[in-house]
Amino acid sequence: MKVYIAPTPLVKILIVTPEVAPFAKVGGLADVTGALPKALAALGHDVKVVCPLYGSIRRDSQWHPQGKPLSVQMGTGVRYARVWERVLPGSEVSGYFIEYDEFFSRPEIYEGPWGWHSDNDRRFGFFSRAALDLCFWMDWMPDVVHVHDWPTGLVPVMLNTVYAGTPLGRAASILTIHNIQHQGYCDHSIIGFLGLPEWLFRADHIEAMGAVSMLKGGIFHSTKITTVSPTYAQEIQGPIGGQGLNSILSFRAADLVGVLNGIDTSVWNPRTDKALPAPFWHGDLAPKELSKKALCEKFGLNYRPETPVYGVVSRLFGQKGLDILRGIVPRLMQETDAQFVVLGMGESDLEYAFSDFHGRYGGRFATWIGFDDARARLIYGGADFFLMPSRFEPCGLGQMYAMAYGTIPVVRRTGGLADTVRPYNEADASGTGFLFDEASGEALFGAILQSLKVYHEKPDHIRLLREHGMRQDFTWDTSAAAYTNVYRWAIETRQGIVSNTPLPAK
Ligand code: ADP
Ligand code: GLC
Predict the structure, then answer these.
(1) Which residue owns the Cα nearest ligand 2 atom 5?
(2) Among 269, 313, 399, which is best to mutate for testing ligand 1, by the most ligand atoms less than 8 A from CB?
(3) Of 25, 227, 330, 446, which sees the most CB atoms within 10 A?
(4) Ligand nearest to the CA of 381
(5) How much is the CA Rg of the chain, to the nearest whole Å?
(6) Domains 12-262+477-498 and 288-470 share a fold
(7) What is the H or E stretch that residue 353 is in?
(8) What does the alpha-carbon distance between residue 407 and residue 80 come to, in Å, rounded to a whole number?
(9) What is the pTM assigned to this prediction?
(10) Assigned fold of 12-262+477-498
(11) How many C-beta atoms surround the C-beta of residue 411 within 10 A?
(12) What CATH fold (topology level) applies to the domain 288-470?
């Protein structure tokens, strides 16, 4: 990555996000926006986070409703929202949560029991304007507005258009792509709803296939673009990884960098995790066995110290390649002694198939459908191996949590998995996990067999692999320093100090 020395070292950063842990979480994006601001604040930056106030967020005395209403300028007139302030746990970073019942009183972030909310474009379009109007409400102008994924993709577009003549228009924007699969396609009417100029409806701005793509708009209009691993930064510039956006990402390649996610070790740490029966660390791994026992009891697996448990904690969607695992489960049950535990929710056919295995292979295959942080932690702590056969994986946090908890990843060599898991080498017992290349049952089966063989024949190597994983530094410090460089680079570009890849002319 390019390194620039900025004239002003500290930066004012507004992080605009649809999810933030521990309050509103669907996946790893929330973990990132929950941890990155703390790491940035620790470097001295002035950071604020803004997120919608979903109906599922429980508010206690640490939540402070603000008396002054937030006026949000929409195309159809001004709407008024309420702002709640809540400091992010373990930090002094202020989180601002936008209460607006029509869009956010429902509990779910993106989809309810009947699927994707049909007004997601309006919900997150409104949120994007509200997040920017919040700066005027606070009388605080950021140097950088850092947005995440399609729900906030229109923020850079707004900065370049409706806010261009305001003090906020000076702010640089960073779009982080956590997952390019979701692009926020919506109807042309969003333009009028948000009060954006009609000329934006062009293929070199926000139009895509006759509709509006919020993510595409963000890619064209943000000052700089990041994604969550160096390998994924390359992959999304190709026809398969780019999922239709590869050409414009290649067009903006000079402004695109991969910054690997970190993990928040104050929250994900086997020495302090209350979900585990006993703490452990790389210097004393013995108590990990108690986690394995507790895991087996909790999920209904037979507990046998000599039999390895393979864990999955995942959204159950095509991206994660769990249909590949589904296809080989009968064979694994027949030909190996491995046991499996799956925690997740998502596509109904996968939920059904894994629940069916739970019944069919009782004691050896356990499934829990739902979202449960404590159960997830018990899997990271108690399993021997952690499976991620992802078709694509922008970064992946699960494999890093697993390694931090001494659980050995078995993963497909793609995206951030390729960047974070080092392959086991039998010759010198180096590496941190097992990798395979093809997205096929055969390849996954082969990797599981390889790991099983090492488990049974070389326990000393297994111990070393666990230790290597646990000793790695996945803390946010490195990533926060890398983001700082990106912010300074973006500020300089925005202020014309270094030249930018030109934005397409109006
Ligand atoms: P993604 O963001 O694509 O879902 P990541 O590996 O980056 O994948 O992050 C997933 C995050 O969500 C991790 O914190 C993981 O522990 C958590 N998670 C996923 N599914 C569940 C679940 N069913 N219950 C609890 N936590 C889950
Ligand atoms: C996305 C990706 C995942 C990544 C996470 C956090 O949900 O699917 O790979 O770790 O965002 O960046």
Answers:
(1) 28
(2) 313
(3) 227
(4) 1
(5) 23
(6) yes
(7) helix 348-360
(8) 48
(9) 0.95
(10) Rossmann fold (3.40.50)
(11) 29
(12) Rossmann fold (3.40.50)
